Amino acid sequence: MNSRYEILMLTIPEISQDDIKNVETLLGDTIAKAGGLVISFERWGKYQLAYPVKKNEYGVYYLMRFEVPPSAVTDLISAIKTVFAIRLGNVVMRFIITALELDAPLTYQRPRSLEETPLRENVGNHMHKERKFPYDRSYGTNNNQLESDDIAI
Amino acid sequence: MTKKIKLKISARLVKKRSRRNQGNGVKACRFTGNEEQIRNIDYKNAGFLRTFLTERGKILPARISGTSCRYQRMLAREIKKARMMSLLPYSANYY
Predict the structure, then answer these.
(1) Which candidate in A8, A26, A92, B74 could, as Cys together with A88 as Cys, close a disulfide (CB 3.0–4.6 Å)?
(2) What domains, with CATH codes, occur in chain B?
């Protein structure tokens, strides 16, 4: 009964093939040493980030999934974190390790990358649909309006 | 026995009370009993999660979106994860 995990990594946009191979082999070796098995390593593509990360406005996402026997999990997670901190600090900007449910399907949905979307004028605009949000203003107070209070005793 | 002084309630308080009692009907949670919608709650699914943010990037409260408590908490957790990975914004005033 192996437990499944996934790592979503955000790398610098100008990452080279050698760098990403390095990432893959480093993580693969750490996982194999703990007795685990890499299920998948996918490249999502280049994305415009929601906010600049380490002064980069674009980034490339990679998703890696792997299986480990449950006894080796805690050591493996700390080993992965040290690998990211020490060896891959210049390349990988953010990462998150999530546990997957055992019987969950391996399909997922992700936003479209820059390589998949057709070129539009307003690339900076994340909203694919024009949506009206009437709930934007703070619900309780209207700071600008002066309301007349009837004070009476 | 002293006479009870009835204070006149201001118009603002009257409006506030009436707004608290009224509701636009019971909005159904779109997640309860709906397996595929629950599977959509994932930090990688930024397009789906974006429908639960306001224009300024704030998370919509459950009384507006109608989601039940359990799924609102799952939504909030996944939105915060996605914000950390820069798939969703924390706030809308970057550009």
Answers:
(1) A92
(2) 35-95 (4.10.640.10)
